[in-house]
Design brief:
Elements (H helix, E strand, L loop, with lengths): L28 E6 L14 H8 L6 E2 L4 E2 L5 E3 L10 H17 L3 E6 L5 H11 L3 E6 L19 H5 L5 E6 L4 H10 L4 E2 L9 H6 L4 E7 L21 H14 L1 E8 L8 H19 L3
Parallel strand pairs: 1-4, 1-5, 5-10, 6-7, 6-9, 7-8, 9-10
Antiparallel strand pairs: 2-3
């Protein structure tokens, strides 16, 4: 077989990496694709997000100008897509939890690619169990704090309500909220960082001060302005831009320990290929930031 390797295409690994950098045993990072899309009620298609992000990642430059390093060198292993459980989002969250827990037990830094936002609950639960003093930074246009929506407590609109039962959350980029959620934030003393389009920068220091030592980052791509990220299930006018996001995440990595992250809600059919590439580069940048001080 070794004499005919040139006849076969490479496996679909993040950034198009090959051995040894893509090997599970070598890699410090594990990319977990979760093609689940079951509780969204407007634009469906986030189940195609992980595949589209990974395919777009083939075109990344491995050298990071900002970090002055090739971040892939610590190894990035790409797992097969996690098979969805369509009987209920709660069951799916449990499946994600089991997969993430297994990776954490193998000392991997987990990068989950979605899929709809409901899947984040399982990954966050696994990280909360492994790490003490853990909190979540949620970048999102919506608070996702409903107690129940469309007959379930585990859908994408409820995910941060459930996460908040596990650990503290800090919400950034919010520009849409229901009255139920507004009343809930007041009752719990939550203070989302609502995004004001006239602001030239995010209140980075205040955001970081609200977070604990170990931080899991959950990024719903609709946090971005639709002018650069239209390929999402629930787009919302306004939003943060590329360099605002990087400024926050870079500063976060210098002052807190990023323990894992997810990027969710990409609906490739709703926008140009540039949206998938943005998501892929965001993942690669955040991997680089997370390991910059290690």
């Amino acid at each position: 077989m070794s004499g005919h390797q040139g006849l076969y295409s490479q496996p679909k690994n993040f950034a198009g990496l090959s051995a040894p950098f893509s090997n599970f045993e070598f890699a410090k990072v594990a990319v977990l694709p979760v093609p689940y899309d079951s509780t969204t009620e407007w634009h469906s298609g986030s189940r195609n997000g992980p595949k589209s992000i990974i395919e777009a990642s083939y075109y990344l430059e491995w050298y990071d100008i900002e970090l002055e390093r090739e971040s892939y060198s610590m190894g990035i292993h790409t797992l097969p897509e996690l098979i969805p459980a369509y009987n209920s989002p709660e069951t799916m969250a449990q499946r994600v939890y089991q997969a993430t827990s297994s990776l954490l037990q193998n000392s991997k830094f987990v990068v989950m690619l979605g899929g709809e936002h409901s899947i984040s609950l399982g990954a966050i639960r696994a990280h909360v169990e492994k790490y003490s003093n853990c909190s979540v930074l949620q970048l999102d246009a919506h608070t996702d704090l409903r107690d129940e929506y469309l007959g379930t407590k585990f859908g994408h609109a409820c995910v941060m309500r459930r996460v908040g039962e596990l650990c503290p959350i800090t919400q950034v980029g919010i520009r849409a909220i229901s009255i139920e959620e507004k009343e809930y934030t007041a009752s719990k003393g939550l203070r989302p960082f609502y995004y004001q389009p006239n602001d030239l920068s995010l209140p980075v220091e205040k955001i970081i001060e609200a977070l604990t030592e170990n931080v899991y980052v959950s990024i719903d791509l609709d946090v971005f302005d639709p002018s650069i990220m239209s390929a999402v299930g629930t787009p919302e006018p306004g939003g943060i831009l590329w360099h605002q996001a990087l400024s926050l995440l870079s500063s976060l990595s210098k002052k807190r320990n990023i323990i894992g992250f997810d990027i969710v809600e990409l609906c490739p059919d709703q926008g140009p290929a540039a949206c998938s590439f943005l998501a892929a580069k965001l993942a690669y940048k955040l991997i680089g930031y997370s390991f910059a001080g290690r």
